Amino acid sequence: MASTDPIRRGRRPGDSGARDAILDAARTRFAGEGFRSATVRAIAGDAGVDPALVMHYFGTKQALFVAAMEFPLDPAQVVPRLLGPGIDGLGERLVRFLLTVIDDLGDANPMLGLVRSAVGHPDAARMMREFLGEAILDRLAQAIHEAIDTDRPRLRADLCASQVVGVLVARQILALPELAAADRETLVAAYGPTIQRYLTGSLDP
């Protein structure tokens, strides 16, 4: 027998918790399905609101993902900012930016929790790939490919990801003493040229 309950549309009258309900639903969907497969419509349905209300609060699915996972950076803002000064020095800017975020947040950085979880949980690994790889590094590599016709932009993005995740694990999780104690600019000088080569240099043997 069909339900006679009315379908809830738009803003729930008097419900100041609608935004929190959307975030809770989004966390569950993103954790279970990943960023790409989770839809705004499904998240809205789980939260009992109209999809338009989700967009009213967050604007885009990417912004909703950032808010739901409590990430400290929004790829929609990060990528243009890194590319703004040009391709030269991009590797150092990327490393400096990520280290600044990591250092400022410390153990409260949700990216660290996601890295820890990614080792044993496929869902966490998928979210890490989609957020760090596809949303940030793939976009950087593709923009450089379009600007200077580099080859294999996806491989370049993956090489950068391996370096970035490696720094996170070695410095923040394993806490290798000398690496953890090194100042930010020392690490920028050490890792920046490598990231730059991954993005713009030759990958030929």
TrEMBL record:
Signal sequence coordinates = none
Record carries keyword tRNA processing: no
According to the entry, every stretch annotated as the HTH tetR-type domain falls at: 16-76
For this protein, the DNA-binding region equals 39-58
Q: Does the keyword Ribosomal protein apply?
A: no
Listed A to Z, the keywords are:
DNA-binding
Q: Which Gene3D superfamilies match?
A: Homeodomain-like (1.10.10.60), Tetracycline Repressor, domain 2 (1.10.357.10)
Top-level taxon: Bacteria
The record's listing under Pfam families reads: TetR_C_16 (PF17920), TetR_N (PF00440)
Question: What InterPro entries does the annotation carry?
Answer: Homeodomain-like_sf (IPR009057), HTH-type_TetR-like_transc_reg (IPR050109), HTH_TetR (IPR001647), Tet_transcr_reg_TetR-rel_C_sf (IPR036271), TetR_C_16 (IPR041678)
Name assigned to this protein: TetR family transcriptional regulator
Natural source organism: Actinomycetospora lemnae
